[in-house]
Structure formats: structure tokens, C-alpha cells
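seq:
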Amino acid sequence: MFDLILNRLRGKRILVLGFGREGKSTWRFLQKYLPEAVVAVSDKNEMDGVKHFGNQYLEAMYDYDIVIKTPGISLKDFDTKGVEITSQTDLFLSQFHNQTIGITGTKGKSTTTSLIYHLLKSSGRDAILTGNIGIPCFDIMEEIHLDSIVVYELSAHQLEFVHNSPRVGVLLNVFEEHLDHFGIFELYKSAKLNLLRFMGEADTAVIHESLLNDALDLFVNNVVFSLFDFSDLIDETALPILGEHNLLNVKAALLACSAYGANYRELIPYLYTFKPLEHRLELVGTFGGVTFVNDSISTIPQATIAACQTLQKVDFLLLGGFDRDIDYSPLAMFLNAQLIPHLLFTGKAGERMMQSMGGISTNPTTERQEAPEPVEGPTLFYYASMENAFDYIKAHAKAGDVCLLSPAASSYDQYKNFEERGRKFKDLAVHFGK
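struct:
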């Protein structure tokens, strides 16, 4: 059933590196389809099923013939010379290359992936969703038939060690992110470009014009989605997702389906029935006279800028979080030119943002802080917790104001992920004014 994958692994001593969701998925697959194989698990944390753990857990790679690495493990400071490294993504694409649409980009990949899946399913095709959206690809392989189309969201972490590309690859954009994992932007970008690096003559790359030169170095069969004009076919005011950035995602989704053989004109009616994903310019509601918008997914400056441009009116903007050493000067330039009265910052990233705007962060405490009133421009306020920020909003907001959570930073300093951060914001919003 999965001959190409099994032949790659058969007869080898296998190490599963990382025992999170994908690592456990790999373990289940190996137990079912290669029960005779020598398989071990290595993870920094000690837990049931893990043979190698602790600070030296990466050293175990030298003792096995092949390593199936999970996305969350960074090897930027580890010498991998002589180690054969693969991943679920690499193995999957070797088997199901011809049936896969792969989507990546620093921002927009979940929305675009979900939209492609929605368009294909709504038009009666056998589409299967997998990947970074939360479904390990090994968990869906038994569902794949000859006419199935796999819609695969791919992170840079999943693309880092691949040697196979999908039949249709969608590369939306590449901005600075995940430098804590990759070390430098060039390695992060190179991982993204792996989506296209191993394509053949029958494959198609759907790319943004800003990446055309990079794609031309790798591949020639390119469709530049950002240059397509669908204005005579699409009622942009009726689209359920907002903003110019989402209009680009719509174009990329239509052209990806077209590259796989669908008629994009027939798919357009299904655009209007798409349900937007949570935490992406999500209108939480109006409470106590203030409208709250949850854009917790925004973890880079470009996403926050796009959110502000889409809403046009923002009175309170919540920024900051875990610092990945991203360049915040574009965000500072944008915010200095806007009329956003209140800018609220948190975390190490928030401190750097404040400094880039000429503000000086007060020492973070759990107590409510009074924000200094600047001579001109927005008020800059540092908050230690989300509750702290809402205390400030309650003290300064007036009816008709708009509060946007669009942090331009990761959530990992205070939250498990961006979803937890978004849910916290939403919970405080619905109780605002009570």
C-alpha cells in the first residue's frame, strides 16, 4: 500500500526524533506496517515510550541508520554530518507526490489550505486535509484513493529536510520568522523553497511575484497568482475573509485548484460559503461599546500591518510576546505614521517594539500601570498580562472604539500557542463592561 515509504525504511534501525503529535503518529505507523523493525524514540522530555531523553537526546541520532525528525526539533546547533534525516512530509511526498497540493508561506497558509480544501470538497471532489493545520499526514494515508487530492499545509519546519515536492506547490510569501529555530533568515527561506526545489516538468508552482526570481532558479513552470486579475469574476465585498492579503490567498487558492485540473470559474460560487478560521481577523463582537477583533495568528510585523490596513480604524492595538529577534523597524515606521491612539505592548518582543518607536518600557509588574501621556502621537503602555491590558482599555475606552489583538510576535512566553492567546483575549472581551 505504501511501498515507497516502507522500502525506504525496511531493514534499517529507525529513530523517531520528537514525541509530540507527529512523532506519536510516526510510531503508530511503524508499529502497524513495520512491526519487525528496530525503532526507538528520542525526546528531550522523559515519558512513556521514549528511550533516549535529557539534554543529550540528539546524540542518539548517531546510533541509528535513519532518523524521522518531527517539526519541533531544531538542529541548527547540532552536527548532522553522517546522519540520514527524513520526516513524515518527505516520506509522504515520495509516495503521494502526484496527488498532493502543498501550501506554504510565512502567513496565510492555513487560510489558503482550508480554502482550497473547501473549494475542492464543495465541487464534489475527494479532497483530504492534512499537515501543519493539525492532522499528521501518516494519520490520513489509509483514506487516500486513486482519485483523492491531498491538501497539505506545510510549515518551514516540515519542509526543512524534504527531498520531494508536491505536484502543485503554493508559495504565498516569505518574511522573517522562526529565527529561533533556523538561526538565520536565509536558512528559513531555503526551507520554504524546498516546496519547489524537487519539482518535475509536470508539476506547477503557484507563487507570489516577489518570489519569482527565487522560483526561476529552481523551476520554470510557474503561475504568478498575485498578477492575476479576478475583479470581473469575484464580488470582493461578498467574500467572507477581509483584506488585500486575503484576496491574494483567494487568487492563490483558485489557481492551485486550476493547476490540479479544476475550472476555477466553476469554483468561484464556493468562495462565498467559506467559513473563516478562528484567530484570523475574527470579529469577537461589541461589548461595553468597544468592538474587539482577534488576530492572534499575526506573529510577524507584516501580518499586523495588513490587519490594521484592513480594519482602517483601530483605537487600541495589543502587541508583543515572545522575542524571535525579528526586525521590527517596518512595524515601527508603519505605526508612527498611523492614528492609533493606544499601543499596548507585552513581553520581550513588546519591549523591543517600544524601543523602536522611541518609547521606554516601564518595569513589568502584575500591578496595573498608569501610562504616561506623550506630548504627541500614540500612548505607549506596557502590560504584564492580558488582564492588565484590559484594565487599561476599560479606563481609557469610549463607545465606538475598536480594540485589535494583532501581536506581531509569537505567544510562547505566556501561552501554549496563538490559539490559547486568542481564546484568552476573546474571554476577556465578552466580559468587558460587565
